[in-house]
Amino acid sequence: MDTQTLTYLFVGASFALYIGIAVWSRAGSTNEFYVAGGGVHPIANGMATAADWMSAASFISMAGIISFMGYDGAVYLMGWTGGYVILALLLAPYLRKFGEFTVPDFIGTRYYSKLARVVAVVSLIVVSFTYVAGQMRGVGIVFSHFLDIPINAGVLVGMAVVFMYAVLGGMKGITYTQVAQYCVLIFAYLVPAIFISLLITDVPVPQIGLGSVVSDGSGISVLQKLDNTLVDLGFGPYTSGSKSMIDVFAITLALMLGTAGLPHVIVRFFTVPKVSDARKSAGYALFFIALLYTTAPAVGAFARLNFIDTVHGQTYANVADWFKNWEEVGLVGWRDKNNDGIIQYGPGAPFKGKPVFDGEARGTSGERLVSNAEISSVNEVYVDRDIMVLANPEIADLPPWVIALVAAGSLAAALSTAAGLLLVISAAVSHDLLKKTFASGITDKQELLYARLAAATAIGIAGYLGIHPPGFVAQVVAFAFGLAASSLFVPIVLGIFSRRMNMQGAVAGMLTGLTFTFSYIVYFKFYAPELNNAAHWLFGISPEGIGVIGALLNLVVATVVASFTAPPPEGVRLLIDNIRVPAGVSSPHDH
Amino acid sequence: MNKEQQSNDNENAYWQANLKLIAALLSVWFTVSFGCGILLADYLNQWHLFGFKLGFWWAQQGSIYVFVVLIVVYVLAMQRIDQRFGVSDDDGSAN
């Protein structure tokens, strides 16, 4: 069976599975729609959290980004795992004890005002939509390559599938679908990694393979070979980064704090039966996540080595089929700058921007002609980072079923996260904005209907953003973290650990953090991108890392404002005492 | 001391135990990631762990393993602390 048929088969089967689960777990009440009735087992919740967490960014982009960033890739590796320690220790158990449905529920109740709740909703919506744009884009890319459908059509198919299980099943449908999606994605990630590790080092375990000796008889280690190869081509060594230490520090911290402030992750801890389950669930989640995250550096390094071996110095006529296949979709491009028919790879961009092809026009070697503006550099070839994982099985000449599996796995990752995000967005609208703020008279049945309508609308908007996305999948997602770190993380943690933090402080802090971070990012990424370098950054911190300063501003402003306004009322002090103690936990409920 | 004061003192003591545990675990968290993986990475790179430079290994693998262990330690330690202060939510049902 050829690859494309196999891919349709694997992807189709996985979709049928998800929809089947959604039908089986139809939500019948707001409790089930928002938090799956509070009855999810910690191991299942751990898998669901891991799938929810590992999006198209983790599955497709991260290894690709690491493969080009080398050491600096650690910001994503540590940043996206270290946050779970923060979640487990500082947030999850107490929020579960709090026992309502959404993150704005906690902020609105702890800070005893509709204003606080609405500010939290706004932060949540900004963060979640930024995040979901990247997911739908990822879905489109996978569809377009593996199933030969245009990217935008792929986005629409993805939207339809998510619509079915998110709108039908709510959190219940999403959770159990995510368990299935975790199994698909982890299998799809590990199988090629194991194959490639065997190919390059004769060691099957990728984590160990990365530290092993290359099996070509030279006796040098993988990383040493990669360092040498890159330096020979004019790059810096793989094991050294190019970002400044303060930027690496800031980005890592922003990602960690942002992780702990992401509503769609936090809400996963509302779905387990007890406080002790919430802690265990965080442990299971990180274990399941770490399986992929400790494999990714190996995938990244092997991919870079493979890419150079198979592309650099090859004539276009002889280069592998995968190169030409991806060229068809515009994710690979080559301009024969020195007219020698040979593909040369080196530092610097090959031409300005992503390849824009001159229709079907072909050059002397048969390559698609690129019409982009020239950049004088040694590098002739463009390869989209997002495809390093997707193309790796082909580059390593793995059997077709592995390639089909990777397609199914990438879709599982993107769809699971998209669903989780869409659910928190719809809950924020139907529960926090309607039921709790502007339309408190609606019944449970009506709220459920509005939740479904909101989910459908959010899917539409997410699809639009998928068709017009603002950047590489993983980097778009990194901004969402900065926003979450600077707006939601601080008031939640202060709400648990400080009795003195009050409404005025929390609101002032959230608004400050959000506005500062949002403006900084928009300024450097959209308004004045030519200034987006270390010379102009505040303290040398990039837009990806500025969430840390945003969080600090949030904390300072909140503390100052709280110090000269009234302390929280007695009822809130009792609430804080209550959530600090596991005993007496009840099923999640609407107050 | 009346029963309410006793209960308050108990909960305060429980909270203090919780905070101490959190502080200890977070120091390890900081040390392996920001310490070994970032601030001291260049210094540690002079040593090797198999084919890895040590700082690079901490940043891209080692810290993640430690994070998982930290949460496991937290779960187990809190189980004991919960029981010691009588605030556990564990009714004995297997989970």
Low-confidence stretches of chain A: none
Give a short account of the largest sheet of chain B: 2 strands, antiparallel
Total helical segments of chain A = 22
Specify the overall morphology of chain A: globular
As a percent range, the share of strand residues of chain B is under 5%
Order of helices and strands of chain A: HHHHHHHHHHHHHHHEEEEHHHHHHH
Terminal CA distance of chain A reads 57 Å
Q: What is the mean pLDDT of chain B?
A: 89
The total beta strand count of chain A reads: 4
Enumerate the spans of chain B where pLDDT stays under 50 for 5 or more consecutive residues: none
Rounded Rg of chain B: 19 Å
Helix percentage of chain B:
over 70%
Largest interface pair: A-B, 54 and 44 residues
**Amino- and carboxy-terminal Cα gap of chain B:** 37 Å
Quaternary organisation? heterodimer
Tell me the strand order in the biggest sheet of chain A.
Answer: 1-4
Can you walk through the features of this model?
The complex is a heterodimer of chains A (591) and B (95). Chain A has 591 residues and is mainly α. Chain A contains 22 helices and 4 strands. Chain A has helices spanning 3-24, 30-35, 42-53, 56-69, 74-98, 103-110, 114-146, 151-201, 206-209, 222-233, 245-261, 263-266, 275-293, 296-311, 321-328, 388-395, 400-438, 444-467, 473-497, 503-527, 547-563, 570-579; strands at 332-334, 357-362, 368-370, 381-383. A two-stranded antiparallel ribbon of chain A has the order 1-4. Chain A is globular and about 80 Å long. Chain B is built from 3 helices and 2 strands. Chain B has helices at 3-39, 41-44, 54-84, and strands at residues 48-49, 52-53. Chain B has a two-stranded antiparallel sheet. In chain B, a hairpin with a 2-residue loop joins strand 1 and strand 2. Chain B is elongated, with a radius of gyration of 19 Å. Chain B starts with a helix and ends in an 11-residue tail after the last helix. The interface between A and B is large, with 54 and 44 residues.
